[in-house]
Amino acid sequence: MFLITGAAGKTGLAIIRTLARRGMAVRGLVRRAEQGIQVQAAGANQVVYGDMAQAGVLAQAMVGVQTVYHICPNMHPDELEIGKQLIAAAQQHHLSHIVYHSVLHPQTPAMPHHWQKSQVEEKLFTAGIPYTILQPTAYMQNLLAGWPTIIEQGILANPYPVTTRLSLVDLQDVAEAAARVLTESGYFFATYELVGTEPLSQLALAETFSQVLNRPVTAQEIPLAQWQQNAAAHLSPYALDSLSKMFRYYAAYGLEGNPNSLHWLLTRPPTSLTSFITRAAAGA
Questions:
Q1: Given 55, 113, 157, 250, which is the most exposed site by the fewest CB atoms within 10 A?
Q2: DSSP assignments along 209-267, one per residue
């Protein structure tokens, strides 16, 4: 039995679907009843409920489990403490494998949510349980948040310069890589960067959109203050601050990675940006 924490998010659902297609037994941990319906529809055999930040929830969820894939809720201010609780619960139940969903370049104090993941990784090194760490870069699916603006106005807008270079990855590739390390042997005590593309400027992204959609798409920088004003209504103060710091880091340094590790894990080239946009335009 595999336990997926944070099961109702887009990452958790994608991994559950991939494991279900392989015929694996999956239990999903979610907070609310409506999330449980989503997780079951994705293919989970069991659903358990609770806030993983609360004492005892993770330990309860691990009863009868051999392996856990841990996804902390996005931008959670207590990710390190949750990670400690996860490791303690895994030790209590003598789990055989922890797979931790981290992030590309977690060793970056300038991005607080990255830095918290780095500290959880460090705790795994001394936990006494076989672990695998996956470090995905930014998802191609994140581009879909701006899809209406791209389609209707021909603008790819972001709160960092159009020259900012980011490596991207298709979430479906991440889910396939996760399923491999969960169900196949040979991945203990390893850390894998999950990167699908070479570093691409926002100008290059806009050009790819233009080619695939057969219409002009222009990259545009929006002021960070404008983004903050628009986002404040639906983000916690910690998330707003963390994302603002991430965008400042992107503006200065980008987020650049190499696709070779993911190519090796998948035994095929990772999904290209062109293929992803083509799939998105077709509604797949």
A1: 55
A2: HHHHHTS--EEEE--HHHHHHHHTTTS-HHHHHHHHHHHHHHHHH-B---THHHHHHHT
Three-class SS state of 196: coil
Q: Give the whole-angstrom CA distance, residue 114 versus residue 60.
A: 27
List all residues 6 or more positions away from 161 whose beta carbon is below 8 Å from its beta carbon. Answer: 202, 221, 251
Could you report the per-residue pLDDT of 8-28, keeping only the tens digit for each? 999 999 999 999 999 999 999
Categorise residue 93: left if φ over 0, alpha if ψ from -120 to 50, beta otherwise: alpha
Of 180, 108, 157, give the one whose Cα is nearest residue 137: 108
C-alpha 48/C-alpha 30 separation (Å) is 6
Token pair 């336990």 is at which residue?
3
Per-residue pLDDT averaged across 173-184, rounded?
Answer: 98
Beta-bridged to residue 32, according to DSSP, are none
SS (H, E, C) 18-52: HHHHCCCCEEEEECCHHHHHHHHHHCCCEEEECCC
Q: What angle do CA 237, 6, 114 make, to 5 degrees?
A: 50
Please state which CATH number belongs to domain 2-137+169-195+257-271: 3.40.50.720
Identify the sign of the CA torsion 39, 40, 41, 44.
positive
Q: Which residues pair with 155 in a beta bridge?
A: 218
- 284: pLDDT strictly greater than 90: no
Strand bridging mode 97-101 / 131-136: parallel
214: phi > 0 → left, psi -120 to 50 → alpha, else beta; which? left
Query: Coil, strand, or helix at residue 158?
Result: strand
Q: Which alpha helices (H) appear in 43-186, and where do they start and end?
A: 57-61, 79-92, 112-125, 147-153, 171-183
Report how far residue 276's alpha carbon sits from residue 103's, in angstroms, rounded to the nearest whole number.
21
